[in-house]
Amino acid sequence: MRIITLLLLIFSSNFCLKAQYSGTWSGKLSVQGQELPLVFHIVQEGNSCSAKMDSPAQGAKGIPVGECELKEREIQLKLANIGARYTGKFKNGIIEGMFEQSGLKFPLNLKPQVEEEKITRPQDPLQPIGYKEQEVFFTNEKDKTTLAGTVSIPNNCETCPAVILVSGSGAQNRDSEVFNHRPFAVLADHLAKSNIIVLRYDDRGVGKSKGDFSKATTSTFTEDASAAISFIKKYPKVDSNQVGIIGHSEGGLVAIKLASKSEVNFAVLMASPAIPGAQILMGQQLAQIENTSLDAAQKKDLEDFIKGQMDVLLKSKTPVKARANLNSYYKKNFKKLPPATRGMGLEKYAQIQTQALASPWVMEFVKYDPRLDLSQIKIPVLAVNGDKDTQVNAEVNLASIEDGLKAAGNSDYQIEKLNGLNHLFQPAETGSIMEYERIETTLDTEFLNLVSSWIVAKTYGEN
């Protein structure tokens, strides 16, 4: 699910600065006892500069950001799209400053970073990998977007089953790289060594894939996945009658859509949502309220505010109407928000929220009910989730998947809730997003073996 806000930093100045900002700067933001590393890549040219930001713990690189004002030995970054601001002073070779958001202030000191730290994980595939890989390109014929990916081919394969891998929400490369982990590279490696051909690809607008990610919706990603399926069915050594899809998180919704049309022969749903998007989004927001220090009355006001906001969004037919309706709602109900949030002002708050919510992706997501498509699926399905998943609740969503498949009259399915695993299928303590980067394991071995053995049984036959 989407957990990253994308930013763009553009720096400007009215005179030649004595402080040299060009280079890579890094620091750690302390939020609720957790450290969030931030990295800024700054290029200064005379009185002007430009930059990009990385949030390694969130798996975000080359993030675009808003506006800035440079003064002698001082820099001020105004991050309008998230209602934040960073002000720092150049001192003794570092930038000492303060990060502000929603009326709260956090110290953030930036130090020069000589070179980007290359982090490898124990499960990253290493040469010799024991199978062949080939870069490929295929086209979504509906909008003529060319996508790039990698096909992994087992060495001893004459005719083999194949799968495509579809990533979760957010702009992902073919390895589904996030938090310095490359789960799709690890999964493809494991499946190729199990005599399964694998196609993984960059999301549109990411890596070598063309297209505009910002304008895409789940339906767009479904069209891209459909193009990937058509491509891999014609690929050498692929058994075109044994082609499946593995979708993680939002990719699970894509898998459900395509499985309901029998475009694939089997489907693996990894931490897939299976209830209306509005329930998921609102559930995440309400869960966050419980972890705040607000008193009971403030929590009740905020819960009512969030429910009302979702009702407005569901009733709006277009993004333009949603923006107008949300702005009207915020004017009437702004007082229900906590004092710290009201500190940014109504205009700024409305700007941030409407930009985030009144988008084609969000509006399609909250209105989509996957239960309708689940009730049409006739092919074999493996649905798996971790019991520590804090983004897609295992109990609720696995039950909904099973109910939908039963409604379809489908008895060829397997539902698995794996103990101790989070949303990324890592062994976890709490399942919190903030743990993801600290965990060395990319994909739990039990999960990998479950997926490969299930696919082998469905395609090569039960042992």
TrEMBL record:
InterPro entries: AB_hydrolase_Est10, AB_hydrolase_fold, Hydrolase_4, Pept_S9_AS. GO terms for biological process: proteolysis. Pfam families: Hydrolase_4. Keywords: Hydrolase, Signal. PROSITE patterns: PRO_ENDOPEP_SER. The keyword Oxidoreductase does not apply. Residues 184-279 form the Serine aminopeptidase S33 domain. Residues 1-18 form the signal peptide. GO terms for molecular function: carboxylic ester hydrolase activity; serine-type endopeptidase activity. The keyword Nucleotide-binding does not apply. This is Alpha/beta hydrolase. It comes from Luteibaculum oceani.
